[in-house]
Amino acid sequence: MVSAVRLAKRYRTVTALDGVDLAICRGEVFGFIGPNGAGKTTLIRAIVGALRPTSGTVTVLGLDPLADRWELRGRIGYMPQQPALYPDLTTRRNLAFFAAAHRRRGDGADIDRTLAVVELADRAGDPVRTLSGGMRQRVSLACALVHEPALVILDEPTSGVDPELRAAFWEHFRAMAAAGATVIVSTHQMSEALMCDRVALLRRGRVIATEDPGVLLRSGRATVELWRDGVRTSVTLDDYPSQLPGLIGDGVDRIEVTLEPLDEIVLRLVAGDKR
């Protein structure tokens, strides 16, 4: 669905992307994670054809996002980090406008269904300027989904959204992937990263890891506390699945294992510590 080969983008003295290689498959929920300035938004903009790479190539649904932008328009949904809406139009009219811009008429059923997903049916007739920041975020997501695209690219889609609605959004993302769509999500939330099929960790414009987040989690360190004959000892293991059996022997009364959180694993990788 998306392929990048040696993709680079430079702005004078700043290198935003530095030789990115990436392949995202149909039906995946794929996450971009990394600190601010790592290149996540620049990579998304290259995928949707919003910028011209300095070098390298990117292919989306088998097409060039710049040369074939008109053909791709109806097949991609894009939610930018900052909502790009028409504040004087109502929520419903914003959805109708973006459906038409993506070459889909957007009948009432399409719009009603999408408004239900983002739980804004009761605010359909309100001008967007009267909505809160979190509600505008939900309208922006709806505008990316209303034309039922094959590829959905979401830059921080749940920013300002309450936990209950965030869970509902992710349930919808998983349902879209199960139906064959591909969902790309940029997020700072490690709990959301764990809900992706795979994640790409970016640092200084480079992809330093592409992995199942569960595998990343299992690769973390573990703190093991052992009670032997009433005496407690604590050990830190770099590879606890293989090292833990060697610690368990006769006389162990109790054992507790605390796994390193995913955010700490990511921080170590970003800092260049792969131990």
Topology:
Layout: E1 2-11, E2 14-24, E3 29-33, H1 40-47, E4 55-60, H2 69-73, E5 76-79, H3 91-101, H4 108-117, H5 133-145, E6 151-155, H6 163-178, E7 182-186, H7 190-193, E8 198-203, E9 206-211, H8 213-218, E10 222-228, E11 231-237, H9 240-247, E12 252-259, H10 262-270
Parallel strand pairs: 3-7, 3-8, 5-6, 6-7
Antiparallel strand pairs: 1-2, 1-4, 8-9, 10-11, 10-12
Helix pairs in contact: 3-5
Describe the structure.
The protein has 275 residues and is of the alpha/beta class. The chain folds into two domains: 2-212, P-loop containing nucleotide triphosphate hydrolases (Rossmann fold), CATH 3.40.50; 221-259. It is 33% helix and 29% strand. It has ten helices and twelve strands. It has helices at 40-47, 69-73, 91-101, 108-117, 133-145, 163-178, 190-193, 213-218, 240-247, 262-270, and strands spanning 2-11, 14-24, 29-33, 55-60, 76-79, 151-155, 182-186, 198-203, 206-211, 222-228, 231-237, 252-259. The strands form three sheets. Strands 5-6-7-3-8-9 form a six-stranded mixed beta sheet, sandwiched between helices. Strands 2-1-4 form a three-stranded antiparallel beta sheet, covered by helices on one side. The chain has a three-stranded antiparallel beta sheet with strand order 11-10-12. It is globular, with a radius of gyration of 22 Å. The protein starts with a strand and ends in a 5-residue tail after the last helix. The mean pLDDT is 88.
